[in-house]
Amino acid sequence: MNILVADCGATKADWYVSGGIHVRTDGINMAHTPPERVKEIIADAAQKLGSDIGEVHFFAAGAIGAPPVDFQEFFPNATIEYASDLYAVARAVCGHNPGIAAIVGTGANTCQWDGEKISKQFRSGGYILGDEGSGAVLGRQFIADHIKGLVPQSLADEFWKRFQLDYAAIVKAVYASPAPARFLGGLAPFLVDHYEKEEYARGLIDNNFRGFFSRAVTRYDALPLGIAGSFGYACRDIIRRIGEEEFGVRFTTILPSPLEGLKTYYGL
What we know:
Blueprint: E1 2-8, E2 12-17, E3 21-26, H1 35-49, E4 53-60, E5 79-84, H2 85-93, E6 99-104, E7 108-113, E8 118-120, H3 126-129, H4 135-147, H5 153-163, H6 167-175, H7 180-185, H8 188-193, H9 199-215, E9 225-228, H10 230-234, H11 236-247, E10 251-255, H12 259-266
Parallel strand pairs: 1-4, 4-5, 6-9, 9-10
Antiparallel strand pairs: 1-2, 2-3, 6-7, 7-8
Helix pairs in contact: 2-12, 9-11
């Protein structure tokens, strides 16, 4: 029987079965994605992954308490582990060694890992109450400035050319869409593209990561930091510079996703 590892972020989900089957689906946030949609995504993945699965390790953003769906319905012959995506990242970047693990993607989250379990955690709070360092928070800060006319005109003009979002469309995307964090996080690459030539974009990005280090990372013991997440990986040089020079952080690795580290952890 095969082992399945599922790493589900808010934007995308990677499903990997020992033997080399890799499926990518829409993301899942267990705190926000409606249960019917969660079922649709899992059913789609299960159909592509095959039935010879005896062990499932399912990690998802927003996984708190009991799962909202019955995984046995989709994987009837498997034992199930259900945990937050922070466990996936900790195992991927720390393995069996103590350290600090962080997700830096559409959302952001951190913990201290003792080599086997999370030993300390300061809650992320999500993109409204926290998530400093994330793509969604960067997008939220930019949009808040944009609608108040605080973005330099040259950058505002480029934003309009690329996205053509007026005030009504922005409000609808933030307050009436099923995935506002995904929308806000989708604006982050635009700002990263302007990091070198726009002082405003550079300041916004740098301060977003300063908040990540000061409000989350440096509150843990002085252990090396490992990061996984597409946004963090895209900004890895910026993160390393600010972390090392301004906060004295030591780094282990920065991965685009936890999947490669999880393959090693589970021997897949």
